[in-house]
Design goal:
The protein has 366 residues and is mostly helical. Among the domains are: 12-93 and 343-352, Tyrosine recombinase, N-terminal domain (DNA polymerase, domain 1, Orthogonal Bundle); 99-259, no CATH class. It is built from twelve helices and three strands, in the order αααααααβββααααα. It has helices at 12-32, 42-51, 56-72, 81-92, 99-108, 116-132, 137-142, 176-192, 196-205, 248-259, 278-292, 305-352; strands at 149-150, 154-157, 162-165. Strands 1-2-3 form a three-stranded antiparallel β-sheet, with helices on one face. A hairpin with a 3-residue loop joins strand 1 and strand 2. The chain is elongated and about 80 Å long.
Amino acid sequence: MSFPPRVNTAPAAAIGARYRYDWELFADWCTAVDLSALPADPLTIAMYLDEHTAATSTHRRRVTAINTVHHRSGYPKPGTAHALRERLTRRTRPRPDLRAAADDVIRRLPTTGWPGGLFGRRDALLLTLACRLQLSPTQIGRLKRSDVTFDGHTLRIPSHGITIDHDPDESPRTDPVAVYLRWARLQAFTDRTPSNRWLGESLTTATPVTDDTSTGLQLLPAIRHNGPLLPSFDKWGHANMGQAGLSRRATTRILTAHLTGAPHARTQRQVKFFDDGWADAVEDVVEAISDSDDTAPVEQPELSADEIAVRYEAGLAARRGTAEAMADLTTTFEDLDDRTDELLARIQGIFDTLDESADSSEPPPA
């Protein structure tokens, strides 16, 4: 079916004296916000009604005027519950089944090495939560470590009604319980040893997970620091100092990169252990730099242990301050999402009460 071209004005005959004021108010608002009045999107009407507070009877009259002008101009009525539901369905239609694609990605993610093993284990759990357990990016970002429990066989996320048993017949690479335990045990390790150097050593010496790997189902130790289940990291593997997990935008970006086959390539770094000539390695680097530099060496100031500690604490305080300053942004955006959902639900309630009988029998113009 073909419709007239998109315009922001309507023929006088289509408006009529009865609806002129309400239609012109709507058309002027659409022009001001650069939206189409004819034809109008159902969401445009929802925003218009929200910005023009009035009694329910006034809203009904305004929507009736908009519907009448559309009907007389040869367009479908946008101000109906059916139109809004159809429009919302296009925004919230179920996501496709991405389990097979996610499992294929998880199989290729590293479980060892530094920092690849860190990001690989985290992203494997992220893909599992999103593609197999159907949690949204916002829900994933809000999960705390204590929100997920494991009793030796069953993984539970009570806040979302999720219960999943360990499947001994599924590969430990992709089994949701095994994927979760690999990440949870890594977090438990950092509880006891909050050092990236020791974490890097542990991941570098770990055995890669294969289809024949046996999943240990031992209970996890008690959580010491109940932070986000999936925190963000910088490229060196340092965790965000704040209490917020991955943002919705970051989660979506990571999922999209993996599922489209274009993840950011992370270079595995060589980890020097304390018992593997660390001091000699540092001396070799300093010597190499000195040999390649033709300028006179710069004498470095000598700092006492107390001065080093003060500078270290100052750096940590600066990072914490930045993290706290940025933490409110995630909450702000989530509040906007919640308000949008509430607005659309309220507008749909108004549409549900509209009486469409007045002009529904009028045929469109020939």
